[in-house]
């Protein structure tokens, strides 16, 4: 270990052992503290957001490829397309709990960049399949490789920021990723023009080009992703030992869980006995039912359900995602400023309950397209809102790791539902799909209301001097 790394370790040990959080924080003026946080934002949030953009692009480009000729090229008759979409989520759900443990042990920089590079290579392979069942196999591999990415990013971000800084960072991370959904249709339409080049169809080039882009960003990610705060002083000298100790001290002062305890499988799984872990997971699964349904089937709905040409359908995907990004960030600013989480989740669900009937049951295409805006906003703005709602109300590094895994695992279940509810035989109104997603938004309201009551009563108990929340004196739930 170098003297530089030893210095960082000594600073961190003093932070934990001497309980000198205030002293470490006071080493920097408020202006210097802001500069350090902004440096972390630029390095960590931006890098993870760009890689997540690759993840979403690679996971959801089936819709664009399908209307670009894949359906004909692979003879996707009957339920074959829905099966290809669905099969991804089975390994995606199953491999998430162990993936977060591996991430903590191996380190985010190595783990996240490695799996991104591997799934980029897998995506290139999509462009060369000859039969539809070969694509099934590649989608399984893709699910295994992507399983650890989103929960890993959510977990890593939660270890760097205090509770009331987190939603803006989650929103920017997800906003950058959502750019994939906004530009993927336009990009896919441009790539389609390569049809015939090198003997490959246009839809095949979509997979090849986007897979190559992912591989390039994965290599860059290896040099840009930083490890956990307590190891930041040795991550390409991203922070000095004093700055690393400052970040750890801020987290310790906020929730007293900056440094993880040694891993124990029994203790790790025991966290699953907490009912709110599953309530948050359910909220996220219901949210992703909305987001995946829109992501996978919006091009199809616009083309086959609303009668737009392929070119218009690909391009009309973008505006609703731009609107969702604006609302998402606005909600994050309000949530962090006023320390509220549940009301924002409920507000977005109400938008979904307004927009989905317009999309499904209106007769005018302009009104239906307005419904697309509201439905897209509802699902996408709630992703960082639910992530932060969960992160604000749990403590402990291993519990945080398990919660990230269960949350995004249920998100995968939402993906399974969202990938199957819009069926060809239900065109052009897609009634069963619309109704399913409406029910999901209604359940979000119910669960959020129940959690709000539970948290309010627990906070009152603490104020009366009763049993502490999450085993920490003075800790309060964020409503």
UniProtKB/TrEMBL annotation:
Major facilitator superfamily (MFS) profile domain sequence ranges: 44-460
Region (Disordered): 1-21
Family matches, as Pfam families: MFS_1
Key words of the record: Membrane, Transmembrane, Transmembrane helix, Transport
Location of the protein in the cell: Membrane
Superkingdom, taxonomy of origin: Eukaryota
Cytoplasm among keywords: no
GO molecular function: transmembrane transporter activity
Gene3D superfamilies in UniProt: MFS general substrate transporter like domains
Listed transmembrane segments: 81-99, 111-129, 141-160, 172-191, 203-225, 277-298, 310-332, 344-363, 369-389, 401-422, 434-457
Nucleotide-binding is among the record's keywords: no
Annotated signal sequence range: none
Primary site of residence: membrane
GO CC terms: membrane
PANTHER family referenced in this protein's UniProt entry, alphabetically: MAJOR FACILITATOR SUPERFAMILY (MFS) PROFILE DOMAIN-CONTAINING PROTEIN-RELATED, PERMEASE-RELATED
The protein's name in its UniProt record: Probable permease of the major facilitator superfamily
């Amino acid at each position: 270990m170098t003297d530089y790394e030893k210095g960082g370790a000594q600073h961190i040990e003093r932070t934990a052992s001497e309980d000198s959080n205030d002293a470490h924080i006071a080493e920097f003026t408020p202006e210097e503290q802001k500069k350090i946080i902004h440096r972390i934002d630029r390095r960590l949030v931006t890098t993870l957001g760009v890689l997540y953009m690759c993840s979403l692009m690679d996971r959801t480009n089936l819709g664009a490829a399908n209307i670009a000729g894949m359906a004909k090229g692979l003879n996707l008759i009957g339920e074959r397309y829905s099966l290809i979409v669905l099969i991804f989520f089975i390994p995606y759900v199953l491999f998430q709990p162990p993936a977060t443990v591996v991430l903590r042990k191996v380190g985010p920089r190595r783990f996240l960049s490695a799996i991104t590079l591997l799934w980029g290579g897998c995506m290139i392979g999509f462009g060369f399949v000859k039969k539809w069942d070969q694509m099934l196999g590649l989608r399984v591999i893709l699910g295994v490789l992507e399983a650890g990415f989103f929960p890993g990013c959510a977990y890593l971000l939660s270890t760097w920021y205090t509770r009331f800084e987190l939603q803006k960072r989650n929103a920017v991370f997800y906003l950058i990723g959502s750019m994939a959904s906004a530009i993927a249709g336009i990009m896919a339409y441009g790539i389609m023009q390569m049809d015939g080049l090198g003997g490959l169809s246009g839809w095949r080039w979509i997979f090849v080009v986007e897979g190559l882009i992912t591989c390039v960003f994965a290599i860059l990610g290896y040099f840009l992703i930083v490890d956990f705060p307590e190891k930041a002083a040795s991550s390409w000298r991203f922070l000095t030992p004093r700055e690393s100790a400052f970040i750890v001290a801020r987290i310790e002062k906020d929730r007293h869980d900056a440094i993880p305890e040694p891993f124990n499988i029994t203790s790790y799984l025991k966290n699953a006995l907490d009912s709110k872990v599953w309530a948050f997971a359910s909220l996220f699964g219901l949210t992703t039912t909305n987001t995946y349904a829109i992501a996978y089937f919006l091009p199809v709905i616009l083309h086959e359900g609303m009668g737009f040409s392929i070119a218009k359908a690909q391009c009309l995907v973008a505006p609703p995602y731009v609107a969702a990004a604006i609302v998402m960030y606005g909600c994050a600013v309000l949530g962090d400023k006023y320390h509220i989480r549940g009301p924002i989740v409920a507000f977005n669900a109400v938008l979904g309950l307004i927009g989905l009937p317009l999309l499904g049951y209106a007769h005018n295409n302009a009104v239906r397209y307005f419904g697309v805006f509201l439905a897209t906003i509802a699902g996408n703005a709630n992703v960082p809102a639910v992530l932060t709602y969960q992160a604000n109300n749990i403590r402990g590094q291993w519990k945080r790791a398990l919660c990230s895994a269960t949350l995004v695992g249920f998100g995968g279940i939402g993906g399974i539902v969202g990938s199957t509810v819009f069926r060809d035989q239900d065109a052009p109104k897609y009634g069963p799909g619309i109704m399913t997603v409406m029910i999901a938004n209604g359940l979000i309201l119910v669960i959020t209301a129940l959690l709000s009551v539970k948290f309010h009563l627990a906070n009152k108990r603490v104020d009366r001097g009763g049993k502490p929340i999450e085993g920490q004196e003075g800790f309060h739930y964020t409503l």
